[in-house]
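Structure ticket #2291
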Amino acid sequence: MSTISERPSASVLIWRVVLRNSRSLLIAYAVVTLILAALQRSLIYHPHRVREVSAKELGWETGRVVPLRVTVSDNAVLHGWHVLPPGRSARDVRESDQELKLGRPVVLFFSGNGGDRGGRSEWFEMLSECGCDVFAFDYRGYAENEGAPSEAAFAADAQAIWKHLTTDRGVAANRIVLFGESLGGGVAIRLASEACEAKTPPRGLIVRSTFTSMVDVGSHHYPWLPVGLVLVDRYPSLERMPRVTCPLLVMHGQRDTIVPFEHGRRLFDAALAKATTGIAKRFLDLPTSDHNDVATTAESAVRRALREFLSDIGQR
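Resolution: structure written out below.
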């Protein structure tokens, strides 16, 4: 005698479909997460590779920019510039050293995650017009430099450049102002915190459009990904900021679509109210600025803030 099998109910069939689809979605999610985790550095760093970044081709007058080469760890060579103030000139490193002996403030500039130093000319001009010597080096894997970008490599190279200035070039730490834009702000904050903890604080720190951490900004753009679990280069600037004891200027655009405005405010709030020199921290709110247009949308305000900040820390 044969038995008659019962057909599954509609609800059972629905749950089977749901479970089967859920498994497929989970597998797809895991695959996408693994792919993005493997490619994360290519998503973070966007270097522009060239054989040479020519100051002359960018319109700088002869003598205003001295090409530099600094050997860092693993015998890697970083190319950079010494940009002199208007009216000053140097033909080579020897004359560059003579200019440094005049005692002007020295700005050590750290770029964002894209392009090369040639795309920051307007910032070098503004800073040099404030009477500063500006030093800017491209990161590993950027412009003429060999190597691969990473947070650890950038931190090591920043320390090497700091040592180059303070030891090889004879620039006192209290003459150096660190300037970091976007990701470069993370590099500058780390270097500033390390120098302050070593009791050799820089003259000041300026950060523009910088994030609290790479985890925070990654989670903002990819809220559906477990960024905190897979991210390697984390740049925890919010944790490091309280250890910065030198004068501080933070600039951030309210319309920033890459690093939300609140990141700048949180970094500022995390900093000490006053530097050990007694100078209060400053925040420049840029109501009309996005992430990459600060130099054009807020030029007057930025120039004024830079002059006032550099003048104040110079007097102290």
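Closing remark: The two ends are 103 Å apart (CA to CA).
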